[in-house]
Amino acid sequence: xxxxxxxxxxxxxxxxxxxxxxxxxxxxxxxxxxxxxxxxxxxxxxxxxxxxxxxxxxxxxxxxxxxxxxxxxxxxxxxxxxxxxxxxxxxxxxxxxxxxxxxxxxxxxxxxxxxxxxxxxxxxxxxxxxxxxxxxxxxxxxxxxxxxxxxxxxxxxxxxxxxxxxxxxxxxxxxxxxxxxxxxxxxxxxxxxxxxxxxxxxxxxxxxxxxxxxxxxxxxxxxxxxxxxxxxxxxxxxxxxxxxxxxxxxxxxxxxxxxxxxxxxxxxxxxxxxxxxxxxxxxxxxxxxxxxxxxxxxxxxxxxxxxxxxxxxxxxxxxxxxxxxxxxxxxxxxxxxxxxxxxxxxxxxxxxxxxxxxxxxxxxxxxxxxxxxxxxxxxxxxxxxxxxxxxxxxxxxxxxxxxxxxxxxxxxx
Length: 413
Known about the structure:
By secondary structure, this protein is mainly β. Strands 3, 6, 9, 12, 13, 14, 17, 20, 23 and 26 form a 10-stranded mixed sheet that branches. Strands 15-18-21-24-27-29-32 form a 7-stranded parallel sheet, with no helix packed on it. The protein has 4 helices and 34 strands. Strand 1 and strand 2 (about 10) form a beta hairpin.
């Protein structure tokens, strides 16, 4: 079939590009349409709208409430910058920016004790202004879990100047049966953010071994030293040892090394338990030595010397150059004790210790050259002399260390 002109219909050779009859070109030309500019404008507008929506979304997301959750340390960021929050069990840990994630203590199953937990806040590498930071805080709470049967009793966090530089502190009351609990600090911020920090607090129940004059020879210093030697060999380290002493006078020095025991003086009215030599405490297991109702009667030297943690109640010291002294590594808690006719009744000479007693209550400090001396002592916890009586001392309290003390409730007749 031969090709025809697309204009006049005349027959043409197959390869003809124009018609010899009508002289018209045989090439069909496609219609050229002008560009549709409205499509480009629409696409451009849609792109701008999408970018705007993303910017708005980013702004909304950046201001949505956030949850900051961690262990004993967390960094919280708001419009004023970065804040470091940490939780501990001692003011010195806050002062040194040292968070404490876990704490384990030991206690007899039928006993109760107390522990303080604390929250610290840093801003720009320095301890933060507590008041300024807490203007941002709606609430600050502390909870324990699982805390079965109310095994732990918690006070709600408060600001306490006795525990500076802590921003908040809470007191825990626990028993030997409290077990293992997780402490959760929750700060709800006024901007909607939530901050959570967590610590683990575990109480290991202790077994007690008791020795009395009825079942053990305790009449002489040699008997007592022999018993301590036997305890070191035979009694497990995690057992609390209580020794109840008869109303006798022990002559010579006594040293507790490595293994701690508790000594209870006689209180049945048949006489007192008396030590005429120095008692030196240098122990590491368990953590504290307890001394109750013992009389230290000397003729110079030192009555009690501690490079470990000691608590004493109802004890008396007379006739010593130094009645009792806490040395490096040690701390002595004092309650209801008598210091009379000594060169120095009680002396703090320590900057390293593992526990601390912030009260010196209901003591009688009379007729000493120096009643209480703070030669060396570091820390920020104020020692309270509430109920203690100072009388007849050349110097009641000598404080070259310039340690913080409170004598407002002491008596100076």
